[in-house]
Design a protein that fits this description.
Number of domains: 2
CATH architecture of the largest domain: 3-Layer(aba) Sandwich
Strand content: 25-35%
Distance between the termini: 31 Å
Strand order of the largest sheet: 12-11-8-13-16-17-18-19
Shape: globular
Number of strands: 19
Length: 386
């Protein structure tokens, strides 16, 4: 039986914490509910303790005892700021500072509060420390209107918590290389040819592999998000630099999540090209196909995972062809024709294509998609060795 702390902050979505508690209890977990004073204005400690089958009196300091996981749902903007600064002025934040295991936050607030640079900076700091952020989702908000700020549904939060609780040292001693981000090919000394990849998917994969005990190297091309803690970071800019960084890898598992440019300017200009009234014609030449080269060089026992960012059913068919053409074990297809998933989005949706068949992953936070991809990679690796 695992022991879970569930913190509840003030906000209309606090009522969802009741369902989250019920889900944990139903599966046999021991739950200790913790509330801020603001949280108690929306849901009572008596209600949560009854759902948790917890008297609240077994220990004077139940929140300071060992717990396998701590989830705060909802997490207000105020609590995010306190956690980012290490402030412990109530039961929920004090418990977070004392907790040594995985910490999961489910933000819930007004859309403008979520978008505020101060809130985003606090989220960035917390993610850098390995804190798991689930949501917020886009939808109807408590004060009316809609936007990004709605707390994720309890089932989604619970599913991510289960993934964290089930993480063992399944990749202990395994060397994993992940590429992430988007390459930039110079047009001149100022401008470049690039893409909209933020690196979120690759960073999520690197973080998940590290959680499973792997020795992780992250080859990062112009990330828009922070690299996770506990990985070896190799920063690159262009497709050529990324290719050089990954081709000689001796990693046991290679996950090529970066959006590597297919073309680059054949003759980038020296210095900055000055604007005038004439057209600027740029000749593009193909870059090296790093995934194909990895497939050609792969050593025995090495598992290769490629990513295909394409559009719709035609893109899915092209991704299927890549599996054989690139000599890889797994292709992850992302439909980038949609704005709510894929490039520069918090969520993703994917099709996992391998020799044994295909599996669709429903829309979910990229952290959850990363866990599913690594689950599949581990299954393929185990099957290959048996």
């Amino acid at each position: 039986m695992t022991r879970v702390l569930i913190g509840v902050c003030g906000g209309i979505s606090a009522y969802k914490a009741c369902e989250l508690v019920r889900l944990f209890v139903k599966d046999g977990h021991e739950v200790v509910p913790l509330l801020t004073k603001a949280g108690e204005r929306f849901v009572t400690a008596q209600t949560l303790n009854a759902l948790a089958r917890h008297s609240g009196e077994q220990s004077p300091y139940p929140h300071l005892e060992h717990a396998d996981l701590y989830v705060i749902a909802p997490t207000t903007a105020n609590t995010l700021a306190k956690l980012a600064s290490g402030i412990a002025d109530n039961l929920v934040t004090e418990s977070a500072l004392a907790h040594a295991g995985p910490l999961v936050l489910a933000p819930a607030m007004n859309a403008r509060m979520w978008a505020n640079p101060a809130t985003q900076e606090n989220v960035r700091k917390l993610r850098e420390r390995g804190v798991e952020i689930v949501g917020p989702a886009e939808g109807e908000l408590g004060e009316g209107g809609s936007g990004v700020g709605r707390m994720s549904e309890p089932e989604e939060i619970y599913a991510r918590c289960l993934q964290l609780l089930s993480v063992t040292d399944s990749l202990a001693g395994v060397r994993v290389l992940v590429s992430a981000g988007g390459t930039r090919e110079p047009l001149d000394s100022v401008r470049y040819l690039g893409n909209r990849s933020s690196g979120r998917m690759g960073v999520a994969l690197a973080a998940e592999a590290a959680r499973r005990g792997a020795e992780v190297t992250l080859v990062a091309a112009n990330l828009a998000v922070s690299a996770p803690a506990g990985v070896t970071l190799v920063e690159v800019t262009t497709a050529a630099e990324l290719t050089e960084a990954v081709l000689e890898t001796d990693a046991d598992i290679v996950l090529m999540a970066a959006a590597v440019a297919d073309y680059r300017p054949a003759k980038p200009e020296r210095g900055k090209r000055r604007k005038d009234e004439s057209a600027w014609q740029v000749e593009l030449e193909p870059t090296a196909d790093v995934l194909r080269e990895l497939g050609a060089r792969r050593r025995k026992g090495q598992l290769l995972v490629g990513f295909a960012a394409d559009e719709g059913d035609p893109g899915l068919e092209r991704a299927r062809l890549k599996l054989v053409a690139k000599k890889v074990d797994l292709i992850v297809f992302n439909d980038v024709s949609r704005a709510d998933i894929g490039f520069d989005a918090e969520d993703n949706e994917a099709v996992l294509i391998s020799g044994p068949g295909e599996r669709r992953l429903a829309k979910a936070p990229k952290t959850a998609i990363a866990a599913a991809i690594l689950d599949e990679a581990e299954r393929l690796r185990e099957a290959a060795s048996s």
